[in-house]
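Chain A, query sequence.
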Amino acid sequence: KMLRHGVVPSTCRCRSFMGSMGSMGTRIFDNGICSGGLLSWIRSFSRTTSSSLPLESQSVASSASVDVSNASIFAEPGDAWWDPAGAMGPLHAMGPLRNTFIVSSLSGFIRDAQTPVENENGRMRPLLGLSHVDVGCGGGLLVEAMARLGAKSTGVDLAQRTVDAAKAHASRDAELASRGNLPEYVVSSVEALSADAAHAGQYDVVTSLEVVEHVTDRHGFLKSLGALAKPKQGHIVLSTINRTPRSYAIAIVGAEHVARIVPVGTHSWDQFVTPDELTEAVCDAIPGARLASLKGMWLNPLRGMWEITSDTAVNYIAHFTLQ
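Chain A, predicted structure.
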């Protein structure tokens, strides 16, 4: 509650709580993780996951790999998704970083990234001609961004309300409408979508960001993602949370116990995925998948901006190619 109103809990309170965790908590504090840097992380991380707070029940598609009782509370009212100053502000702040990683990762594989195409407003469209689907799209932040970069973009989500919010926002984008490149949205599970001939094997780029850590059947989920990509030439981009003491301090201790911005039990540290585990799981579930790039993402507390880093201890993003 204090963080929600911009008040940071004291260092003493952090030390007290971390000390109550025993030797691991003391080490975390003494290593400086529970300093202002951690509290900046908590604020950002907690707002990113604040959509986990209970909301009214809504229409949610069934899924074999995702706990729909969990998915049904991962939705925000339509206006909240597109308010940079609201609960989804950190996702807006993280957006440029994600977009840059996706474009730069694809640049070695797609021709147009070498010679970007400009539209009538002088904006670059390096993804022109590519098809893209975002699984777990929420309100459509990434979907619209990819469409503005030229991709023919589709968003899929389990929750009807979030898809309605995404459609409503996209319909007001005059620039995309004038180019005939409005995103498409589907209420569906990834399993059902990948079994649909209109979608299976049809996408150059498949993305699923901050979703893997909420999946109950990781192999099945990843297999379905792979089935959406074009065989032997598709690309898959995933972002998630590493399973480390630092991620425990931020996502579990900080967000749930110290700041109390999200309910205790919102995250399961056991479901966090290490980079090695993710790579092995993707390559096992998707024939021909190879890791092409993996980078950490962190919030620079001095600049207030998300940055790419080699440190993958908390948030990270990975690009896989199909060969």
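Confidence is low (pLDDT under 50) at residues 1-37, 46-57. The two ends are 48 Å apart (CA to CA).
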